[in-house]
Write a structure and sequence with these properties.
4 strands, about 15% strand, single chain, four-stranded mixed β-sheet, alpha+beta, about 100 residues, binds zinc ion
Length: about 100
């Protein structure tokens, strides 16, 4: 099974669905993504912080739309690696072990 380290280019749809399948977080979470077919060609979905901003930076206004994680997966999006990484750092620093 490919891991993110092996993907340095835009992932194929097959890789996207595998990465999405590995995302076991709550399907009801709100995430931000770009609409399919948008000129930006976005394929990732981003986590939102408590202010509704993208965890990896930037604003969710404008070209991003909020959907549930389940919806993002269903439309062929893949979790944003930078968001995941940043959230992992937060989780590690907030637990004692
Ligand atoms: Zn992100």
């Amino acid at each position: 099974m490919p891991t993110r380290e092996h993907i340095d280019q835009k992932p194929t749809s097959e890789q996207r669905s595998e990465l999405a399948a590995q995302d076991t977080r709550d399907d009801d979470d709100r995430v931000a993504t770009t609409p399919n077919g948008a000129y930006t060609g976005g394929y990732a979905y981003h986590e939102l912080d408590e202010d509704g901003e993208l965890v990896c930076g930037g604003h969710s206004d404008g070209r991003f739309v909020e959907v549930t994680r389940a919806e993002a997966k269903r439309t062929g999006k893949t979790p944003c690696g930078k968001c995941e990484w940043l959230l992992e750092l937060q989780t590690e620093s907030s637990t004692s072990d």
